[in-house]
Amino acid sequence: MSWLMNLIFLLIATAVVAWVFRFAGQKLSGYKPFFRDMPFAVAFGYVAGLLVLIGAVSYYFRPVDVNGVPAAGVIFFRWAVQGFIGFAIAAYLFRLFGRTVGTPGTRKLFRAMPLTAAFGVLVILLYALVSIFAGSIAPHGQEEIFANANIVPGGNPMMGGDPNFPLGTDQIGRDIYSRLIYGAQNTVGIAFATTCLAFFVGGSLGFLAAIVGGWLDQILSRTVDVLMAIPALIFALLLMTIASVWSNQLGIDRTLFMILIIAMIDSTRVYRLARAVGQNIVVMDYIEAAKLRGEGMGYLIFKEILPNATAPLLAEFGLRFCFVFLTIASLSFLGVGIQPPLADWGTMVKDLSQFINFAAFAPNVATAPLLAAGAIALLTVAVNFVVDWMLHKSSGLKD
Amino acid sequence: MTQQLLKIRGLKIEGKSDEVWNPIVNGIDLDLKKGEVLGLIGESGAGKSTVGLAAMGFTRDGCRISGGTVEFDGVDLVTASAAVKRNMLGKRIAYVAQSAAASFNPAHRLIDQHTEAPTQHRLRPRAESELDGIELYRRLRLPNPDHIGFRYPHQVSGGQLQRAMTAMAMSCRPDLIIFDEPTTALDVTTQIEVLAAIRDIVEQFDTAAIYITHDLAVVAQMANRIKVLLRGDEVEEAETRAMLSAPREDYTKSLWAVRSFQRPAKPAISTGATPIVSLKDVSASYGKSPVLFDVAFDIHAGRTVAVVGESGSGKSTTARCITGLLPPSQGHIEFNGEALPLDYRKRSKDQLRQVQMIYQMADTALNPRSSIGDIIGRPVQFYTGLTGSAKRKRVEELLAQIELEPGQYIDRLPSELSGGQKQRIGIARALAADPQFIICDEVTSALDQLVAEGILKLLAQLQDDLGLSYMFITHDLATVRAISDEVVVMKDGNVVEQGPKAEMFQPPHHPYTDLLLSSVPEMDPDWLTNLLNGRGVDNIGDAAVGKM
Predict the structure, then answer these.
(1) How close is the nearest chain A Cα to the Cα of B125, in Å?
(2) Is the minimum CB–CB distance between A295 and chain B shorter than 8 Å?
(3) Which candidate, B404, B413, B453, B411, places its Cα nearest to that of B431?
(4) ipTM, 2 decimals?
(5) Which of A69, A148, A375, B182 has a Cα-to-Cα distance from A188 of 20 to 30 A?
(6) Contact call for B365 and A307, based on CB within 8 A
(7) Closest Cα of chain B to A390: distance in Å?
(8) What is the pTM of this model?
(9) How far is CA B332 from CA A272, B98, B194, B282, B328, in A?
């Protein structure tokens, strides 16, 4: 139990130091508002944060190799820190670039942009470019199979890599680098289209229900309740099974059915949000003024309600996009989503997942499944950074 | 008795907006002796409430005290630790907020919330606090004092809730109570009861108070001294009577002069003229509960009809019937002699155009995401079909008509305007339809008196220029006096009395009209005392004193 004793000791020490820190700050600064109004929890947070920082720095500089056995934890930690710093610098340069180049409007936008948002915009732009020009960027085709399977990422022949395949090959010999690039096109493109569709359908119906109320609201809301009562993934699976029969009969691409099905299931969540937000806006006097003017339903929804509902809807968009993304990956994993040989990040993670077991003694090998997972994570974080920034901007306008 | 209780010196408060600290209060001095009542008045944004809260050593989120001292009974609350303040607040300094309905926790009974502070501060056990609460309810003249405390906040009326909150502030017998506009949200008739109750209880317990309000007539009844604030600075301070009879500064004089605006009387309506709007025995109900009973009155061209009454009297419901939002269950409405379809959806575009509405809360009446140009431009385009530069020209004309510089305001958002400017935009939007008839629903009640006077003058000017007819819904009789030609008094969904303004303000009145008229606070500091004596309710505390 010595670790428990250590933890308790550490907590007590932190608490004491925090108290001293705040007390000294108050005395030395002559009760400046910063220290005077500082709750103890905040002082504790400052000290704890400092401790974590010290711990992280010491961990970073530990030796990578202990008696010939690679310390995988240190290696991954160093990669993470280097990646973090690298992205921060890239985001900073990108923002600097945006501030000096472009129209006055965009320059103003970049000037008020926090670094996190710059990072988000940069990543989303990169993903967009990669998915649009996937065909010309990727060195190989996504379906191309080479003789050498399971080449280790890194491109170093000494460690089992191959300079021709910088990120290695998968278990049947396809180039992971090329498949990652095509994956952006498939996964991101489909997820984006699906989310947009879900928002259009769910948002319009939700606002309509909020304005009209009565029977229409009852019918729509109860239908949505029924749809939401069925577990989403199982429902999607069921519908995909039916759709696959139809797609064979009608000769329509199965991916199209997948987009429609996921959009329908996710639009129920959007509907609920849009209806709740809409109901708060509909009672405003400016809606009444517009109704009395004789405005039609379309004007009410898109000119009066939508601009005032963007903040919560945008937040939901960021989240929903990530969920759709994961749903597609899950469906692909279960074999009804994006069909092989098309590259998809979800399938790639699944296919290479057993390599994660090598992490302890061969960090390079374990990287293979992490690449696709990292691509998903990076985009998720980036989207949410941008959404956060937009939310902040739109709420700042209100007061 | 003349012991110094509160001493504020050079109080500076800053507020954070756009990551920058801006000054809100720039160096206020304030002194308060034991048992004294100080009135703080000023327009919104003057820093009244901020100073009031700072007297407890407290600032709202996003604000901070950046300088000066707040000494309460010798303790500087600015540098005091949280523990010292915790022991002081509630027990020795109490606060009564503007909206009692929003300040009570709806999930607990009144008495539970009442006994919380004394129990927390270990003044007396809970059972004793309950008895004391009932005693205070009795002194504050709450109906059924033995049982009212065992109700939930939503089960009592607004005026009663405000008194229950005063009782709660009294529960620890504090030395200082801060009243932050306690009667602003109440009807005139209810306001009197609350004012009298507050004044008596403050006198009985010899409590010092800071009374924050924007209503001069109210502060004249309550305060020993008055301090006038303007944009975070003190304008002047004097004894109430001295201040009322001889204000020194120009700003104070302008505040005093607001109530003098009155329109010249118009010639009598020629008999047989067709009224613009005529309500023919209109009855209406929300669901199954009836709210209007055979309401009938006429509004003639170029005239202003003021509809007066307490909240819940059916004033706004009448407006909803005229606009067609609430189709009447019986009767009909004629416009220029022709019957209007009851439901607004069945009315033609031209019929809709003729009846426009200006709302009470400009904040909710203007789409916060549309620019001023779009808000006014939309009805212009919708009704007249003008687009492009012709539309913009018309919008600029309208902005000039409401006395706002077009070039400066046309691209702004509503959030970038002051309350009075927003209300002017509301007027411009109504004018954009080029109507004959405008319903003004409490358009000035959310505004400061100086700003409200500007709006009333603008409306009068527009009426003279464009020959508009107004239906003016209000509960403020000073407004009625200022702008109306005819008056309709409503109570519980019935028209109690109606007639030309001159007749309405002359006796004999209907008893309800009389109650309304006599309840409007006057600037005379003795008004409340005289009124209560006249009504036969004098010092209410006397009956209860024996028990203490």
Answers:
(1) 31
(2) yes
(3) B404
(4) 0.73
(5) A148
(6) no
(7) 15
(8) 0.73
(9) 39, 40, 40, 6, 7
